[in-house]
Amino acid sequence: MSKAATLSITSKWPEVTVVSQTPQLIALFTIIRDVNTKRGDFVFYSDRIIRILVEEGLNHLPVKDIEVPTPTDVTYDGLQFEGKICGVSIMRAGEAMEQGLRDCCRSVRIGKILIQRDEETAEPKLFYEKLPADIKDRYVLLLDPMLATGGSAITAVEVLISKGVPAERILFLNLISTPEGIETFVKACPGVKIITGFIDKCLNEKKFVSPGLGDFGDRYYCI
Ligand code: PRP
Predict the structure, then answer these.
(1) Is 2 part of any domain?
(2) Which of 24, 105, 120, 200 is most buried, taking the most CB atoms under 10 A from its CB?
(3) How does pLDDT run across 118-151, given as a tens digit for each residue?
(4) With the C-alpha atoms ordered 69, 75, 76, 82, is the resulting torsion angle positive or negative?
């Protein structure tokens, strides 16, 4: 890896896992952070990172031992996922992560929570939620590409907890997070795990991720 490339800040939080900073991952982030990247490429390369995040997230789900027969008449001692899962996307931007989850988990159930950050105050507003009826019995992969102040994700976790989901069964997947947002989130949501693609330098004075990539939802869906 070139010495010049900026890598993620190392996680000092036990509940936060940063995806391995491989040259491939950094090259993908370089494309989506570039202000000159057009929408088609932004979507394609974001989807690549989302797939990597989902694959990492699945490593954090519980498994049990299972023995299977092989065609050579010798059994294989393997592993099997234990427990039911579902995805929950924080709309709008989190919906972009749904396909990556579906690609890995066939016919996975997906709930939605619509939270929008007030453009003036950056405070999250909850508008809508529709979640699987048995969500309290499932592991929840919470999907939102950006963790800036942490407000939106905290609001979403509060909704999940109010439905009976134990914090220990929530896994929050995001592409880019800030140290400030993580600090706030881990204090407000003890027990919830975070899988992030990159911890950026900081939250800037406008409450945007810096260097970040701008507004993920706008770049993925609109511009
Ligand atoms: C963005 C982003 C997160 C949130 C992060 O969404 O997708 O949901 O802000 O910021 P926070 O950590 O400070 O809460 P936004 O509210 O802009 O809506 P969008 O998904 O429609 O783009």
Answers:
(1) no
(2) 200
(3) 888 989 999 999 999 999 999 999 999 999 999 9
(4) positive
